Amino acid sequence: MKDPTVTDTQTVPVPDIDLLVGSRMTRRQGVTAPLGFRAAGIAAGIKANGKPDLALVFNEGPDLAASAVFTRNQVKAAPVLWSQKVIENRSLRAVILNSGGANACTGPEGFQDTHATAEAVASTLSSWGTETGPVEVAVCSTGLIGERLPMDKVLAGVTEIVHEMGGGLEGGTDAAYAIMTTDTVPKQVALHHTGGWNVGGMAKGAGMLAPSLATMLVVLTTDAKVSAESVDLALRRATARTFDRLDVDGSISTNDTVLLLSSGASQIEVSQAELDAAVFAVCDDLAGQLQNDAEGVTKRIAITVTGAATEDDALVIARSVARDSLVKTALFGSDPNWGRVLAAIGAAPVTIDPDRITVSFNGSPICRNGTGVPGARDVDLSGDRIEVVADLGLGNAEATIRTTDLSHAYVEENSAYSS
Amino acid sequence: MKDPTVTDTQTVPVPDIDLLVGSRMTRRQGVTAPLGFRAAGIAAGIKANGKPDLALVFNEGPDLAASAVFTRNQVKAAPVLWSQKVIENRSLRAVILNSGGANACTGPEGFQDTHATAEAVASTLSSWGTETGPVEVAVCSTGLIGERLPMDKVLAGVTEIVHEMGGGLEGGTDAAYAIMTTDTVPKQVALHHTGGWNVGGMAKGAGMLAPSLATMLVVLTTDAKVSAESVDLALRRATARTFDRLDVDGSISTNDTVLLLSSGASQIEVSQAELDAAVFAVCDDLAGQLQNDAEGVTKRIAITVTGAATEDDALVIARSVARDSLVKTALFGSDPNWGRVLAAIGAAPVTIDPDRITVSFNGSPICRNGTGVPGARDVDLSGDRIEVVADLGLGNAEATIRTTDLSHAYVEENSAYSS
Question: Which residues from chain B sit within 8 angstroms of residue A107, using beta carbons?
């Protein structure tokens, strides 16, 4: 079986972001920036500390087109198994999300809990006048693996949150707060296209962050008038080049889900290329926000591999460097220990020529043709952003992985998460 | 290309260690425990701090049979390239080893330095009465990648160390000290067989420790009367089941080398099975010593995967768990966060059935058929040894990877190694 973290990206076109000239990006509103969407976030008591833990995103229509990508981890949480099933119809009315528990490794009872949650959302929405079936409701959960959810609190919360949502049009920010776990800030973005349509989104995720075809919990919305096929294409193309190229700790979550819902409420028809560019821009921004707020981060690092024979080769090698504990600890220490980059490249399952590798840190060449250059150890890495570029000298393909350093704070946070 | 860290072990027989009943293991003498070997270790000035940094192991014969396994990292240090070449003859008179510099990524000049070192050892030995060619001298280096060695000090040290070796028969311990880098203790072992023959060994290695077909620097010696083919078989069989199953940080060194030299000086003929068992026992002990002294270690962890379809599957999954930063930080915190073990298993590139996985920590079941059992979070992991056993429920094959936790000390040590 193929490494599930490696995806074939050769057929994914590079988005033409020039199509967005004049458009405006904001970090407010998020999923409720596009017309036709409502959202809410409340504290339902799922988290012991009383913080917000339940979010709802509701599509008023007229369209209900939707697509999703999910974790490739073979151990999938109950809400992932449920949402994979309902998304087959390519149509969603709502997404219910909870933090405070992943509902993963919870057996058939955990799946029944997810089903019951979708049923409760559907019946509550129906009683408020929007006829909804449970198969129109996606479910996402995040938090500790292996614990059942407190279903009394979840179900009471569902009634409350539908009521809450009815009160206003701009609950996007509340929803973004309610899906946070170890995140320190909510992550939202909205793209307002000059043509009069919008794409919005929110995300959570700070650890167990090595998305595989999908990532973390992300809900994207648009009011563009587009087909379900177009929604699906735009989502897959965007995630392959954004979330799939973020790798904080090499650990692939059991709950990763990215959803894109379109309401068509702007009544503006948008081409595939325009939608691709806009969804990519929104995903790229959210991926950057996730990297900025990653667990224990002190350095935001971009590992770029150029001169590869194929884009997949470049990705595999960039990921090998991004996951190397010795590279990550050296960069935490602002130490230009480039030999560790070479060792990580040489250990990757891609054939390379050691004598052709050229590496630079923050634009300064530190190794040429596999051999160190004078002054290599004097490069200043004290800032909070580091760019590592490795050229293989084998071809013209390239790829970038975004990662972070391995710090004391990462160890501290993750040695005391469940207890 | 296949993951270079994954080796086909299906054909490696399990050694019959019952053949060693009555034999005695010690942690003294090391490479000079077998008859026919001399060794020495000195401070040649390669390390700035004045600690011992040059070691020599000399085979007096009558036999000169030798074998070696090397790192599978594609970026190979100059001494690895040299030793790979000379070992083709399956005959070695001596091994010269230095700490204080890896001589990796040093270009053609670095290779010339290795060649010159072998030449100097050969000519000095010849002038002392043992006619030796440079192709009979293996070279090993360890330390920072990317710096040339101070060849004036290396060559002066070679003259001194040959002289030093002439003075006594038991320089094994001095040699073991001279190859240390971040190691805190020297690693030596000797097996004294009841049949009157011996196997000895020494090792260094504390970080960048994820051996691939070979590991770190290890020199093994025996005075058994065995063929070069037998030496080669015994070494490959032993390393596949010992050093290859040690994985401290997933980082594969550019310099890993394991050598086995036989002098035949005991004049005792030994069967392949006996040699296999003895070399395995010595390698197994040294691998345990490496684990005990790994960088930043506070917990010695064994990850065992049982119930796999094949031994390779078991190894790949055990390695996936052993390399997972979230598993390693949780265990550092004595936190039985078993969901992270499940997530790491599900992320491995081997097909599994999540609903059949059973996991125990220190003998206490914490997850059965993919679902947590009551009391799972109460397991006591406060001791300094942790056993994780995951049964896949798919077959009868199993494998164990030895690893360590991810601690503050690991981050501290590795964020300030080169600077």
Answer: 369-371
Q: Are residues B355 and B286 in the same domain?
A: no
Does any domain span residue A236?
yes
| Option in B352, B370, B419 nearest A107 (CB) | B370
Task: State the pairing for strand pair B137-141/B94-98.
Answer: parallel
Give the CATH number, domain containing residue B271.
3.60.70.12
Structure tokens that stand for A265 in this block: 């409420």
Q: Do residue A24 and residue A83 come from a single domain? A: yes
Q: Are strands A65-70 and A94-98 parallel, antiparallel or unpaired?
A: unpaired
| Pair (B273, B322) in one structural domain | no
Residue A295 marked as a ligand binder:
yes
Let me know whether B204 and B316 are in one domain. Answer: no
Instruction: Indicate which of A109, A326, A328, A353 best probes the interface with B, i.e. most B CBs within 10 Å of its own CB.
Output: A326
For residue A345, the chain B residues in CB contact (below 8 A) are 74-75
Q: Do residues A86 and A187 both lie within one domain?
A: yes
**Residues B283, B345 share a domain:** no
pLDDT in tens, chain B (419 residues): 334 344 444 467 788 888 888 888 888 889 999 999 999 999 999 999 999 999 999 999 999 999 998 888 888 899 999 999 999 999 999 999 999 999 998 999 999 999 999 999 999 999 999 999 999 999 999 988 888 999 999 999 999 999 998 766 679 999 999 998 888 889 999 999 999 999 999 988 877 666 654 457 889 999 999 999 999 999 999 998 888 888 887 777 788 888 999 999 999 999 999 999 999 999 999 988 888 888 888 999 999 999 999 999 999 999 999 999 889 999 999 999 898 899 899 989 999 998 999 999 999 999 999 898 888 888 999 999 999 999 999 999 999 999 999 999 888 888 875 54
Which regions of B148-225 does DSSP assign to beta strands (E)? 187-192, 198-204, 217-222
Judge whether A334 is annotated as a binding position. no
Chain A: residue nearest B332 by CA?
A415
Of B274, B292, B310, the domain-final residue: B292
The reply to whether B274 and B394 lie within a common domain is no
Confirm whether B215 is a catalytic residue: yes
Question: Which of A315, A337, A317, A319 is CA-nearest to residue A381?
Answer: A337
Q: Within a domain: residue A10? A: no
Q: Return the residue in A212, A251, A335 with the most chain B beta carbons within 10 A, the one to mutate for interface testing.
A: A251
Helices and strands (DSSP H and E) totals, chain A: 10, 16
- Spatial separation of the C-alpha atoms in residues A54 and A46, rounded to whole Å: 8
Return d(Cα B259, Cα A50) in angstroms, integer.
Answer: 61
Residue A22, CA atoms < 13 Å, CB-side half-sphere: 6
Chain A hits for B367, Cβ within 8 Å: 105, 146
Do A258 and A214 touch, CB atoms closer than 8 A?
A: yes
Give the residue numbers spanning the domain of A45: 17-292
Inter-chain contacts counted by CB atoms under 8 A, chains A and B: 245
The total number of structural domains in chain A stands at 2
- Tell me the CATH number at B346: 3.10.20.340
Last residue in a domain, options A260, A292, A324: A292
